[in-house]
Design a protein that fits this description.
The longest helix is centred in the C-terminal third of the chain and has 23 residues, at 321-343. With 438 residues, the protein is α/β, with parallel strands linked by helices. The chain has two domains: 19-154 and 301-372, Response regulator (Rossmann fold), CATH 3.40.50; 158-287 and 380-430, Response regulator (Rossmann fold). It has a seven-stranded mixed β-sheet with strand order 8-7-9-10-11-15-16. The protein is built from 16 helices and 16 strands.
Amino acid sequence: MTLAVSRRAAMLGAAATSGSLLFAGGQAGAQQKPAELRVGITTFLSGPASVFGVPARQAADLLFEEINKAGGIAGIPVRAFYVDEGPGTDHLVGEYRRLVQNEGVHIVFASISSGSCLACTPLSDEMKKTTLLWDCGTQRIFEEGPHPFAFRTQGYGTPEVLAPLLYLLKHKPDFRSIAVINQDYAWGRDSWELWKAGMDALKPGVRVLAELFPRFNSTDFSTEITRLLALRPDVILSTSWGGELVTLIRQASERKLFDRSLFVLPVAEASLQQLGKAMPQGHVIGARGDHWNNHPKPKDPARFKRFVDTYRAKYNEYPIYPCHHMAQAIAAMQAGIARAVAAKSGGWPNDQELANAFRGLTFDSPTSEITLREDGQGLEDQIVGLSSFTDRFAFAVPKDMVIFPAAMVSTPVGQKSVPWLKSLKTDVLDRMPAPIAG
């Protein structure tokens, strides 16, 4: 059952933020109110993925500064402890333990890399520390077993792949052939497996002309582009990201590959500012959620505009989806703590009580409402559209956007993504919302 934050919890949380909440004290087993709320955050601060990790840290710094100016969370100032994912998983595991054992963090935000999340989630079980999976996409986390202290505050790989597939099947239902060019590591391979499982179920008989997996951190795609030009697939899928996606798009555009095939780019949003006018129009683009600066109908337009404008004013760029995912994790933390404090009639929760507050939690982001299911997985809407240019932005944004409801494109609790995708029927296309101009 999904449980929203009660009115009582919201009122207590609001009072606590202003510093007016009285905490229970002197009771047997009561937790002492901490002098500061310590939050451990793992993100990429170096290496190729820092193009995601550094903006996310900037968003956290911005939001924590605002929260502390307003009185903190439950009247407690927030202090962030950052850990760089760049050195690798072994380093990260040691740093997670250090954050809990030496720094005494009350909650951990982990991570960008799916490998990092797969390493940290079992640690949350072992150390009984509430851990919010704020950005990683692997579907395996909650499909391979329960994790009572881990909660993902955003969507994941399955809806992020299925939504663009459904959009393609509506936009270009007559395509007969496809090729994939993905980075050769877990996400590149897994996302193709997810896509192919859904495609084979919903449009059997599509010819796969090429499965190309250039090495991670490649800078030259001339060989792959030459092959794709010769094969002329109707559709080219790439779930690549970061500098490699930017390079691929520029090199493919220069050689007119975008004129011959329709590209589907499920995680393009984070690269569009860097590409500017170099991104061709009319191709399918996604954002790992509903995080478009031209969102057609955000849940809280004023809050959304304030976040975008404040971030842009401070960092001279628009926030990208990792910034929004960080904001969602922080919003979830605020709502979870408010709920936990309310459950103790103003007392401070212990680790188990804090984790319990996140199970079934519903909280608002600037763009939508997000629910943490009973298995810990967050349900996040997905927006997909066609790349286009407007007078408002100097880079491509989507038009003819479809907002896919999270439950429609997410694997049900207790099932695994690949078998579920293989079981899909074409009637799912009849349930797609209509496109929104924008």
